Amino acid sequence: MSPIGIVGCGIGGLALAVALCQQGRPVVLFDQFDAPRPVGSGLVLQPVGLHVLNQIGCKAEILSLGAKITRMSGHESTTGLKVLDVTYDKTGVEYGCAIHRASLFDLLYRAALAAGAEIQHSAQITGRVGQRLVFADGSRSAPFDLIVDAAGAGSPLSMMKATALPYGAVWGTVPWVAGTSLPWDELRQCYRRASNMIGVLPLGQMPDDPTPIAAIFWSLPTRDIAAWQTGSIPDWQAEVARLWPEAAPFFAPITHADQMTAASYSHGQLRKPYSDGLVHIGDAAHRASPQLGQGANMALLDALALARAIDRSPLDLAGERYHRARRNHVWLYQNFSRAFTPMYQSDSRVLPWLRDRVLTPVSQTPPIPRVLSSLVRGRLAQPLGDLTHG
Question: 130: burial class by Cβ within 10 Å (0-12, 13-18, 19+)?
Answer without folding.
Answer: exposed
